[in-house]
Amino acid sequence: MTFSDLGLRAELLRAVEAQGYTIPTPIQRQAIPAVLEGGDLLASAQTGTGKTAGFTLPMLQRLADGPRPGRREVRALVLTPTRELAAQVGESVADYGRHLTLKSHVIFGGVGQQPQVDAIRPGLDVLIATPGRLLDLQQQKHVDLTKVEILVLDEADRMLDMGFIHDIKKILKVLPPKRQNLLFSATFSDEIQALANKLLDRPAMIEVARRNTTAETVDQAIYRVDREKKRELLAHLISQHNWHQVLVFTRTKHGANRLAEQLSKQEIPAMAIHGNKSQSARTKALSAFKSGDLQVLVATDIAARGLDISELPHVVNFELPNVAEDYVHRIGRTGRAGSEGQAVSLVCVDEHGLLKGIERLIKRDLEKRIEPGFEPDPNAKPEPSENGRNRGGGGRGQGRGNGQGRGNGQGQRGRDEQSQAPRRRRGGGGGGGGRRQA
Q: How many CA atoms lie less than 13 Å away from 308 in the CB half-sphere?
């Protein structure tokens, strides 16, 4: 099957061909016809399988085929959890829609709003946005959402993790009740199913990959090491195996900065991206990493969301994530669209409980390795981590706070929400008393 078999317009097929794609991925083969039919959709596929084109192409076709009002109105709204992902979706909409007369724009927090207001004022067909900045501009009457025909929630699972459910509900209240709803998620969690039950009307359901699975094309391995030797081991592996384009995950912003500085001192070019970095600094680092000029990018989970490199060869978990599902998201950065990749995790005695939680989630035992010269101390005792995680085993059971890490003012919401990770509490259950991470 080719894209031309999916009923797409000639203008879209030309754009797809210009991007170098000929064969649709499984999620695209199923999602594109379903969206073109006009009904609601609940779709899940692993990260890197082409979800963005799966909704962008049919969305653009439906807008181009439908009646156009005299003045441009926002007829399609795409919500994403982070500014990086919003920018990625915006690029896809522009690339695939280059031969159509539709107009689109991306808005997110962390930058001044006036250029965004100026871009919106003449009218748009497609708006890609993060929830907080969209609410800010809507409440200031800079954005009219009363003509939206298609609503897309992209990476819906991450939006719920980040505590944006209340913002999403506010946005839904100002949308017209009759519209097409498309919910795309990397995983099908119970929370996603609950949201779908409220939002979607008799949706088509697509699940390309089994819930919380990892791509078979990713070689996964665990290196057991003492916590004090992690940095030395990482530098050794990068140098010994001549790794290039290495995406390294840390739990905290401070940890990302410190690791990037230490690697750079060892003549391994590295930069960090996280929520406290300016948008220009994040864009510069991502651009250098994508082009291959930067060898190592050290990132927090939220900042890396939306990082789209077709053949990223290496992902390293310098620290295991607190939530087991985040492991699936992290290593989903490599092995995309059928290409091979390698995911390495450096695990010390503090993280044995988190590792067990990950292995339970993905239903497989990961290969354990010990690098000569970096043998862990068999008598080492676990210690609490600097961000006070629960070492009991990861996964959803640790609970999440419902606070979004934002102040009451509109400006604070716009600045903070895309740069901070979800707030999680140390025990089970909800509540807003968690410690913010990124």
A: 18
